Amino acid sequence: METAAILPRTELLQVADIVAREKSIDREEVILAMEMAIQKAGRSKYGHEHDIRAHIDRKTGEIALTRHREAVEEVENEATQMTLAKAREIEPGIEPGQFIVDALPPIDFGRIAAQTAKQVIVQKVREAERKRQYEEYKDRVGEVVNGLVKRVEFGNVTIDLGRAEAVLRRDELLPRESFRQGDRVRAYIYDVREEPRGPQIFMSRSHPQFMAKLFSQEVPEIYDGIIEIKSVARDPGSRAKIGVISKDSSIDPVGACVGMRGSRVQAVVQELQGEKIDIIPWSPDPATFVVNALAPAEVAKVVLDEELHRIEVIVPDDQLSLAIGRRGQNVRLASMLTGWDIDILTESEESERRQDEVKTRSALFMEALDVDDVIAHLLVGEGFSSIEEVALVPVEEIAEIEGFDEDVAAELQARAQTYLEHQNELFEARRKELGVTDELAALESLTPAMLAKLGEAGVKTLDDLGDLAGDELRENLGPLAMGEEEANAIIMAARAHWFEDEDAEAKD
């Protein structure tokens, strides 16, 4: 084959250097893109089936175009392979898997070939640029950066960060906020993803951590780690709450964040387009923190339910609207800030509910234990809420109630146990009637009442129970439901026989 005339192309290296500088990418990446473009043009001329490769000398810019054919025992593709015998005629001592390299004459780039080469180079340079952007910004998630608005499309803002582009989506902007080309923008990088096309760097001005970062820029004590931001809750553009705690007892965390005459907090408010910010002292005690979080409303009493992660807040009647806030904003933000579900009641509502509970429980005790209303009220007053509690507590506890002795306590407990046994018999009969299997009934933690309830919901076998999720089990049980962890443990116990069957099959 004709020997290639090797062309000096120092201008190629100059172009590569210019592109590498402009796009801030490696010069080698640009030269590899050029080689690929020349290679593609060579294949268009000599045939796509051939293994044609291009090489640009990194010092002189000379281009060498070559065809490679692999030496093999049996030829499958004549365009890219040749027999070992034939290869050894050309190059004695060649081994299988090695290549015969033929130099090709230089190609004259026509208009179409040049256009194709340009497209390949542009594409490869763009890919290299995107890779460089990703590598540069992948570890900068959580930073606040400044940039210039490059363009606005359908409310989405493209921001020029100097060496990269980022996108600020419409839903990540503050309400009623608009930008024009050339505006300076400060935003929070919340995600950097390696994507083949489209944006890679995602920014936000409505993210809770954006506000936290702004505070750390404005308050030196936060930056130095003396004051810690524990949690943030935002209704972007309207209102926000931020929980802070000081590691130095001599420094007031709220005062430090507010600053002299409110200068520090005002700087943040200004950046967030007038968003009102409540600075809340954080407390390790959930009840105290919830009370603080509901500020400016006053709280009379709180009741915690740790199992359900719910907290009941009782406020004076005149404080209800303040505690809830406009469209429920205050209580919603307080719930987000603390991580607790908050129920708000007025003192009169709570009193009414308490009276209803007393009536209901007293009626239950009167019916189940066959006692008068005085004894029933005494039991309710001592905190007994169910027949199970009366049946299971030590007799001494009941005997300690004023007006009771051990004989009365023992009689009450005996009646409670008899009542429960009778109820369990009824539930057991109902379970069998509904077709709930004995295997399901054998599971610990499931009472006869629960089994009857599951049977009514169509859960009758271990497989039926195993197919449920923990929250579905709790939903089916309704008022009888246990905690989330216990529900998940019951589900796993129901699934245990699946794994036993699999192990048995594996042994066979």
Provide structural commentary:
There is one protein chain. With about 500 residues, the chain is α/β, with parallel strands linked by helices. Among the domains are: about 10-130, N Utilization Substance Protein A, Chain:P, domain 4 (2-Layer Sandwich); about 140-205, OB fold (Dihydrolipoamide Acetyltransferase, E2P); about 435-508. About 50% of the residues lie in helices and about 20% in strands. It is built from 21 helices and 15 strands. It has helices at about 10-25, 25-45, 85-90, 110-135, 210-220, 220-225, 255-260, 265-270, 285-295, 320-325, 330-340, 345-370, 375-380, 385-390, 395-400, 405-435, 440, 450-455, 460-465, 470-475, 485-505; strands at about 50-55, 65-70, 80-85, 100-105, 145-155, 155-160, 165-170, 185-190, 200-205, 225-235, 240-245, 275-280, 300-305, 310-315, 340-345. The strands form four sheets. A five-stranded mixed barrel has the order 5-6-7-9-8. Strands 1, 2, 3 and 4 form a four-stranded mixed sheet that branches. A hairpin with a 2-residue loop joins strand 5 and strand 6. Helix 1 (about 10-25) packs across helix 2 (about 25-45), helix 9 (about 285-295) packs antiparallel against helix 11 (about 330-340) and helix 16 runs parallel beside helix 18. The longest helix is centred in the last third of the chain and has 29 residues, at about 405-435. The chain is elongated. The two termini are about 65 Å apart.
